[in-house]
Description:
The structure holds two protein chains of two kinds. Chain A is mainly α. Chain A has helices spanning about 1-10, 15-30, 35-40, 45-65, 70-75, 80-100, 105-125, 135-145, 155-185, 185-190, 195-215, 220-235, 240-265, 270-295.
Amino acid sequence: MEIFDTLAYYMQFSQVRYALIVGVLVALxxxxxxxxxxxxxxxxxxxxxxxxxxGAMAVSSITGALFSGMKPLIDGTGDMIIVMPLTVISAxxxxxxxxxxxxxxxxAVAMISVGALAIGYLLMNLDVxxxxxxxxxxxxxxxFGSLSILTLTQGEVNFCIAVSIAVVIVFILLYNKxxxxxxxxxxxxxxxxxxxxxxxxxxxxxxxxxxxxMNLVGSLLISALIIFPALSAMRLLKSFKAVxxxxxxxxxxxxxxxxxLSILFSTPVGSTIVAVDIAAFxxxxxxxxxxxxxxx
Amino acid sequence: xxxLTCTSLSLGYEGKEILSNLSxxxxxxxxxxxxxxxxxxxxxxxxxxLGLHKPMKGSISTGDGLNRREIGYLPQQNxxxxxxxxxxxxxxxxxxxxxxxxxxxxxxxxxxxxxxxxELMGISHLxxxxxxxxxxxxxxxxxxxxxxxxxxxxxxLDEPVAGLDPKxxxxxxxxxxxxxKELGITIIMISHDIRAxxxxxxxxxxxxxxxxxxxxxxxIKRTASEWEGNYGNL
Lengths: 296, 234
């Protein structure tokens, strides 16, 4: 009972409630497109984009320091104003280059993602720009998520809620189209669905999700949030709809559990959530294997 | 007017021509077989007609009430589909997607017709099964049912019997013949199987170093005389 008392005590703080709201929403959005990403072999794009988001974050923190007079303007949305468009543009570019034969998809992703990491870190350390006091701390929290996400402002929470609602609505409206484009892009194109448009929308949504999850899990761990719930659900379930719903529920459950655990044991939020996701994947795989064994 | 007309078509990848000056036309109700060696450009031809590739030269036009987007097709299996978690019904109904435009969900009428097509393919009992657990022949039927949702006019089949055992192959051919004869769907089939081509089709397109397009009987006559030319009168 002691645990519940501790939790009840923490729940009194609005910061903790914010963290839970944002965590659940981000996990929900991230899991929705996971199935499509895994099946379309797009997982690497998610990974590449998360590195781009890191570079963008560096650019943003520098410009933030340069134009400190503009602070009130930027404050409401944190660094999103710069990070979001940069990441979305990269998503579109990655998808484009994936199709051109000159630089093959995976090579292009590697180039852009590693390049963004390097440039981002370089910019953060340049003497020309006013340095923040704690560079390695900044870098670490951008890569692995804040040590605790209790630093969210009301503005950031509102922004996150708005974006999440938009992502969920777009996903529901496009659900059937995403299915047909994921299952068989050629057939969809041949019979009149504009597959390239939907691919673009997928890439943009991924970029948006990555940016809003950065605060929570950090750019290196975002892919886990996108991919693990989908992979777990795919172990057990047989219809696309069931897999999608299950991975969304699982992701929300794991995020909630992860956040609560991280509060109780004061561990970093991002890695705790990912650890819970991994555990869930293990459990689902075991059940899947056991079921398969029974059938034979 | 023909349903599909290709005029002096040249096909290829990245500036390399693999097929040139190809002209042929397909009428409503035809059963055309496309024959040719591996690498002769059969699949490229199909993809070009479906609008997935641009032709290097020449033109493709449709007529007789056929819209370019009303050509259904049965692709060769791809690797994504092998571990795709989806039920038969989900896949079949996705055939309607091209007709949906901006409408986000399927109509009741489309759902009914999807069930109809599933029944037509004789796979009603598999409706809620997972696609990846089905046998090769069953999977082909699912994809055929999906193609029927996309169109009732013209079907393109890319080696529909590849990898199927002899019994299932015969069933598949019978099914395709039924679509052609009973529903009047124009069939264009890529095949390796000359015997089946001669048995079922009414027109044959042979591509490769020499291009032949004509009725099945002409093709038989020509192949026979070629045979004679090469080996004398046996």
